Amino acid sequence: MQSLGVWAGDGAQEPAFSHDGILAAVANPRELIHVVQDPGSAALGVARGGFPSPVAPVSSAAASNPTASSAMASSVAAYSAGRQWPLLASLPALYPEWLGDRSFCEVHGTRFPYASGAMANGIASAEMVIAMAEAGFLAFFGAAGLQPQSIEHAIEQIEARLGVPNGKQTPSWGANLIHSPNDPALEEAVAGLYLRRGVRRVSAAAYMGLTPHIVRYAYSGVRQDSAGVVQRVNHVFAKISRPEVARYFLEPAPAAMLAALVAEGKLSADEARLAARLPVAEDFTVEADSGGHTDNRPLSALLPAILALRDRVVREQGYQRPIRIGAAGGIGTPVAVAAAFALGASYVLTGSVNQACVESGLSPQAKAMLAEAGIADVVMTPAADMFELGVEVQVLSRGTMFAPRARKLRELYRGYDSLEAIPAAERSRVERDILRASFEQAWQSTREFWAGRDTAELARAERDPKHKMALLFRSYLGLASHWSIDGVDERRSDYQIWCGPAMGAFNAWAAGSFFDDPANRRVVQVARNLMEGAAVATRAQQLRCYGVAVPANAFDFRPRPLD
Ligand SMILES: Cc1cc2nc3c(=O)[nH]c(=O)nc-3n(C[C@H](O)[C@H](O)[C@H](O)COP(=O)(O)O)c2cc1C
Fold this sequence. Notes:
The chain is of the alpha/beta class and 563 residues long. It has 22 helices and 18 strands. The chain has helices spanning 19-27, 60-63, 70-80, 102-108, 126-134, 148-162, 184-197, 212-219, 243-250, 255-263, 269-275, 299-317, 334-342, 352-355, 364-371, 402-415, 424-435, 439-453, 455-463, 465-486, 501-510, 523-545; strands at 5-8, 33-37, 44-48, 51-53, 84-91, 114-116, 138-141, 174-178, 201-205, 223-224, 230-231, 235-240, 283-287, 292-293, 324-328, 348-350, 378-382, 392-396. A hairpin with a 6-residue loop joins strand 2 (33-37) and strand 3 (44-48). The protein binds flavin mononucleotide. Residues 117-120, 123, 142, 144, 176, 178, 203, 205, 239, 287, 290-292, 328-331, 349-352, 355, 498-500, 502 line the site of flavin mononucleotide.
């Protein structure tokens, strides 16, 4: 192996060739370290501190060469005396802040290329957003499932603490805009709210294509600065798990949609003109096998496909600005974070692991259940919002009967055309074990809910008995989420808790550490530990790549309170 020079200790220092010594060198990735060789065994080791120098190590044959300079002779003497070692590489400090795409932190004003994802019904709470933003992470408020006034209330809470967004002066944060095919007015109202309140980052979820609302949000405020550079004020983070959906957001919005928005006075002609050259989104969160809505794809298969698509569209469109592809789904350990960055992710985004944290809007009872979850304690089950379409979500299976009960309801929905057509024995089992109410009583409360939300649904249910059955069954699914959020004890066996395998992975990694105490599960501590541990794992992998015999446990960063 070619040597760069020599490394000399200051007397007491020696390079580490043992497992323990290499472990200690890996543990602090912020330190400059050197890969050196044992001239006797040719084994590779790691030196910390000391004096690297570009003087080439020479053989003892050269030392006896009468033409050798006296400096070289003394270097060789030290070398032969075992106080200098051939230097093969020097590795500068490695910071968790640098693991992702540098433009992520620059554009979004964060310290770390790490985000906590939106979790519906305010589970990703204002408190969670504030804690993360103050510590230099990006965080998305979980607005899905909430009405605009509740979302606005959360925005007020966040702004009261973080300040009103004004360029780079206040910490960055964002909120979720969920595509609502059944309720386009709600999607429009929430997008309008974000524009009115100046929410600068939106995580766009559940889109199968573009809607005017997300397009309006994306391009509102786009302008050209005095140097002719196009600037955008609003940032869409497209949450995607399929290439065909990613493409909609990678390309500029269709001309017809932009023209319609101009005609309605929702975009200016200038904004639409500039939009024709800009992608809808410049940040993409690639969602692999996650909690909640997921296609269960492995990150290692999905992320490279989206990276390749991004590169193709950038070439086709001739974009000058970077488009960042982040990774989500299954990320619950430091090595998973390191692996996501090694795959080329610009940033990472976590969900499940934050749900068990102090700041999450979930009840303490449900958080305790999450803390018990193993890696296989999750299952796919019907989704309340897209029940009729057969869409599923990933939920916790341990300690709750929600999944089999929701599946039972879907089986009945698929098998019968009306509530009345369900055989009596089935019906009484469902009434007793799942609804804990007769169909009539359950329909009465379902009716009351929809009377306050959308009477068109009720009118449709009157005409279509199958739709009535869907609304009734969906009400159980919807309530099951609220029971887990509110901690309704008598409904513990019905808790619907969205959760992916990342939770079990986190629990296994964190077992025996300070995270065992629920009070220590704080989103910032989780994020710092995942990022710090990812830096350590990356360092271990770097050394391994240079041929150092890195012990397996060098990758196992143990959780600890981090400032
Ligand atoms: C309880 C829960 C609720 C979620 N709600 C939403 C949501 O409303 N909108 C959204 O875009 N993603 C939602 N997600 C997905 C997360 O934002 C994140 O992308 C995902 O959890 C990452 O995968 P992981 O669970 O494996 O960490 C939710 C996830 C969980 C666990």
